[in-house]
Automatic annotation (TrEMBL):
Membrane topology: Multi-pass membrane protein
Function of the molecule: Forms chloride channels.
UniProt protein name: Bestrophin homolog
Similarity comment: family membership: Belongs to the anion channel-forming bestrophin (TC 1.A.46) family. Calcium-sensitive chloride channel subfamily.
Amino acid sequence: MPVFLWWRQFECLSWPEDLLSMLCTVIHANDETSQRRRHTIARYINLSTALAWRDLSKKIRLRFPNVSNFIDAGLLTEKEFEILEKINVRSSSMRRIFRNRILKLIEIESSKGSPFPSSFRTHLDECETIRWMAPLHWVQQIMRKEEEEKKPTTSLYNNFMTELKLFRQSLRKLFCYDWVCVPLVYTQVCVSLSPIFIHSKYGYKFAIVPDKKTTIQTFL
């Protein structure tokens, strides 16, 4: 069961290449507006992935301690950063989970003597806001403008929006797997069965009776 859950999590890792290759079939013109829209959508998709993984992966959070660091990486503009700062989609359960996770991470790294940015505690409230969905909504708005102005093929447009929905679902599933860990019962089963298996292996013996060619099967 734990291996199955691990593999399901691996399958939920999003790959922007499939979505972006489909984008080129929907917005295929070479004019300045089309190129700008393609580049912006690609940036938003990567930004959404980075924002989501930032709350799931310690390495990504160390790479981007603050949301403002995405500006230096070229994934976010100043205006978009201000919009993200105003987003206030909060959930009490998520706020508690994120806060406890980051505080535990700080405690573990501090005990190891690893350098940890002091801004982690200052900007801890950043984990209380769901920002990773906003860039995907911006992608939908751009595609809506493209549909109104240039009338792309309906089937291609619908396929892209369906793929975008699956992309969002994959990120949401990663959050669900991160919130709900493997039940403790599986750990208890592994811990309890291991000693039994070892005891059965070494406890199953054959006793040799002196001066006889027979053996007696015994259990210790």
